[in-house]
Structures are given as structure tokens and as C-alpha cells.
Amino acid sequence: MARILLFNKPYGVLSQFTSEDGHPGLKEFIPIPGVYAAGRLDADSEGLLILTDDGALQHRLADPRHKLPKTYWAQVEGAPDDANLEPLRRPMDLGDFISLPARARLMDAPTQLWPRDPPVRFRKAIPTTWIELVLLEGKNRQVRRMTAKAGFPTLRLIRAAIGDYTLDGLASGQWREA
């Protein structure tokens, strides 16, 4: 039986077990040998990371060909309205690839949100807004690149779900078996 762990990756932590360039790795949070991340999150992104000891499952969870939806919460600079999200809902040319259309909607700030260390920079003259994006792919820095191209740079990015797996009940730095 495959072992599946759900981990709420904190800001600044790498999606690998070894530490590097002053960033801690997964071994500082998950004391279980033989599990590996199914996909990645950048060090400056937070949220759901799935780990498993089953190589085939790891591939299925991470490979965009399987079209597993990934839900992200992005705190963006500015105050977009629903019409401003329309470019995110269409294929977007990001230079090295054209993204698939995303589901995008405005959302309230997540109520169960943990503090980020260091905190997101705030500027009194520039508001921030939360957007939920659901992608069927997850290429390198894709959400950040998409929101920036739409005119609303991402300040904080949290992956909330992968398919039916969610962050529900997990504080930053915590993990549980699925």
C-alpha cells in the first residue's frame, strides 16, 4: 500500500530533502525515510506538497498529462475586478510556452491563513487582493508569471489543493498521512 503524506510547506523551504543556500529542506520537517515529493513548489511559495513512497503514484500526481487540477491562492498587488481576471481564463503566451486556460476568481483572504515569515511587504497606497486560480498544469513559476502578465504581480502564493488532496487542518510546517 502506497504511503501518502500531505505537507504544508512553509515559505523559504525547499521541495527536496537536502538544505541548500541557507534554505532548509524537507528533512527538517518530515522524519520519514523513503518518501519523495510528487512535484515541487518554489522556495518562495507555500502550501500543499504531496510526498509518497510509490514511484508510479509520484509520477501520476506530478505529470501535467494527467490533468490533475492544482488550486492556488495568490495575494496580488492591486485591485483587479472580475473582468481583469479574463486574461487568466484564456491561453496565455508566457514566452517559453502557452498556458492552458485557468479557472480564476476573486476570493476573500483565507480565514485559516498562518502568518508568513518574513511578512509580505505592504504599501499603504497599493491595495492587495486574493485570487483563486485552478490550473491543469504547473510549470515553473507559472502562477506568478500569469498574474504579472495580467498586471497584478503575486506577493504571496499558496497551493491549497491538488486534486482532492487539500491543506485543510494543516498548519504551516505540519504534515499528516492521507
Task: Explain what you see.
The chain is mostly beta strands and 178 residues long. Helices cover 9% and strands 28% of the residues. It contains 2 helices and 9 strands. It has helices spanning 55-62, 142-149; strands at residues 4-9, 36-37, 46-52, 70-77, 103-107, 128-135, 154-162, 165-166, 175-177. Strands 1, 2, 3, 4, 5, 6, 7, 8 and 9 form a 9-stranded mixed beta sheet that branches. β2 (36-37) and β3 (46-52) form a beta hairpin. The longest helix has 8 residues, at 55-62. The protein is globular. The mean pLDDT is 93.
User: What are the low-pLDDT stretches, counting only 5+ consecutive residues below 50?
Assistant: none
How many domain units? Answer: 2
Helix content: under 10%
Outline? globular
* Strand segment count: 9
Oligomer: single chain
Indicate the CATH architecture of the largest domain.
Answer: 2-Layer Sandwich
List the secondary-structure elements in sequence, H or E.
Answer: EEEHEEEHEEE
The whole-angstrom Rg is: 16 Å
The CATH superfamily of the largest domain is Alpha-L RNA-binding motif
Q: Round the mean pLDDT to the nearest integer and report it.
A: 93
CATH T-level topology of the largest domain: Alpha-Beta Plaits
Total helices: the number is 2
The major sheet is characterized as:
9 strands, mixed
CATH class of the largest domain reads Alpha Beta
- Percent of sequence in beta strands: 25-35%
The end-to-end span amounts to: 12 Å
Structural class call reads mainly beta
